[in-house]
Amino acid sequence: MPHEQQPQPPDELDAEAVRIWSSLAVAALGRAREDIDAINVYPVADADTGTNLYLTAESADRALAETLEGADGPDGPGPEGVADATAPASLAEAVRAYAHGALIGARGNSGTILAQLLRGVADVLGDEPAGRGPGRLLAQALTRAAESAYEAVAHPVEGTMLTVATAAARAGEAAGAAAGTAADVARAAYDGARAALAETPGQLAVLGRAGVVDAGGCGLVAVLGALWQALSGQEPAAEPVRGRAVPVPQSPEPCAQEQDGPAYEVIYLLEASDAAVGELRTRLDGLGDSLVVVGGDGLWNVHVHVDDPGAAVEAGVVAGRPYRIRITHFGDERRRARGERTQRAVVAVVPGEGLAGLCAEAGATTVLVRPGEVPAAAELLDAVRRAHAREVVLLPGGAELRAVAAAAAEQARADGVRVAVIPTRSAVQGLAALAVHDPDGSFDEDVVAMTAAAGATRYGELAVAERQSFTSAGICQAGDVLGLIDGDVAVIGSGLTETAEAVLDRMLGSGGELVTLVLGPEVPDALAERLEAYVQHGHLAVDTVTYHGGRYSAPLLIGVE
């Protein structure tokens, strides 16, 4: 987490001002995170708006820091677009890096909107047009930010973060038109946002019934307060409106959070053209609600609430290349509306979109990885936080991920979450553990049962050799099919079918009751049918179950229990 700093404010709107703004925004959201989480009742009362905004701002800050360090560092060339690596970064480079970091790290509905607000700011400040003073330029940037945020949301609702952003922009424009400085514009925007936030309970019924202001708007006030502080050197007179600080009339009727809304939140980054994204918006709008698509120039962040997460991901596949896919099950909304955490949840790292959907349907929070990819501990920690539970069982799904999972678990324990890491080394071991998961039993007994189920599952995998290499089964050539058992190459073959049969023979040689097959995206169903018949012919008492791993999964995963 960046250190909160109080350096001398810059005299103008430049890269240093952006750096200070970013650092102060992370600090402000960090202080207000729990309070904002506590008042989160719209669009879903899942108590994570403050956390999502904080993680989004943290991602933006990291990207900005990397750009500034690259520009100022003495060694080697700077990042793309920086002509002289020894020269300080420009305002344009700083705001673009800041917005890009928010885009790739956006979390939840509020974080996605914040990312688009920062992109709108970057659209104006990134051009650095001549003839406009810093105050006028900042006012226009805030206006563009509010406009772009409205455009990104499929069905804008008043009394939300969007309303607060618009009020801030209008106040900033007024100050800019009066020839105010950048600090004057920022102060006016901050004051306008605070005033608009106080009005949100009267604009959105669910807020009025709960007696709270809008959580996303509260976070935006914190960000704007940090902007004013960065430009003026003056600390806001009071913390952003927190909790029930704004008195609103209490209704005797309970919070009317919708209980029939979609069950899943789906978020992913998407590489796609503008035209394809237009079609994607239409398709996703028909699948669910809370649709927000932000970004541009070929890279987008997609957020939607749906009942069919697989269909939402498939829509992204049609549009372009989705990755960093996160699927979260909302759970019991009535429990969340009362501010209660789920007692226990499972977080699973999975190598395939189909597997991610399968685990999500079983109630797990998933982290999707591509072949060879090792997620950062921060990404697993984010998944633990998204699970919103007092107890979490973490399934890393690979031996190479255990250290990262352990680091994430240690950080989560510091947050007060009880976490157990089950040393699953394959996705099929994770499926076996999920099959015996008992959320109503004791935590220790559940962990023991899941660990035993995973440990009792031998795992195999088919892969295609990329080059000639020495293996534990001999020398393989590029294009050979490798059959791995428990992580070691056991069979080298020329085709998928014969290699899979050889692997099954060896795995079933020591017994088994259930074979699990997970097919890769290019593998036909006919292979599963042939392997199922092969198992039945040689092992009459063994059952076979088949799943589709989807994009990014290996050609074939095999589990034997």
Number of strands: 16
Could you tell me how far the N terminus lies from the C terminus, measured between alpha carbons in angstroms? 43 Å
Strand content range: 15-25%
The overall pLDDT, averaged over residues, is 84
* Overall morphology: elongated
SS summary, helix count: 19
Strand order of the largest sheet: 2-3-1-4-6-5-7-8
Helices and strands: which structural class?
alpha+beta
The main pleated sheet reads as:
8 strands, mixed
How many whole angstroms does the radius of gyration measure?
26 Å
Helix content: 40-55%
Uncertain residue ranges? 1-11, 74-86, 240-259, 332-339
Give a quick set of tags describing it.
eight-stranded mixed β-sheet; alpha+beta; 18% strand; six-stranded mixed β-sheet; 16 strands; 561 residues; disordered N terminus
Explain how this protein is built:
The chain is of the alpha+beta class. The protein is built from 19 helices and 16 strands. It has helices spanning 15-38, 49-72, 91-105, 108-125, 134-152, 161-177, 182-203, 205-210, 215-232, 274-285, 309-319, 333-337, 353-361, 377-387, 402-414, 427-435, 443-455, 496-508, 525-538; strands at 264-271, 288-296, 299-306, 321-329, 342-350, 365-368, 389-395, 418-421, 458-464, 469-471, 474-476, 481-485, 488-493, 514-519, 543-548, 556-560. The strands form 3 sheets. It has an 8-stranded mixed beta sheet, sandwiched between helices. It has a 6-stranded mixed beta sheet with strand order 13-12-9-16-14-15, sandwiched between helices. The longest helix has 24 residues, at 15-38. Mean pLDDT is 84; it is low at 1-11, 74-86, 240-259 and 332-339.
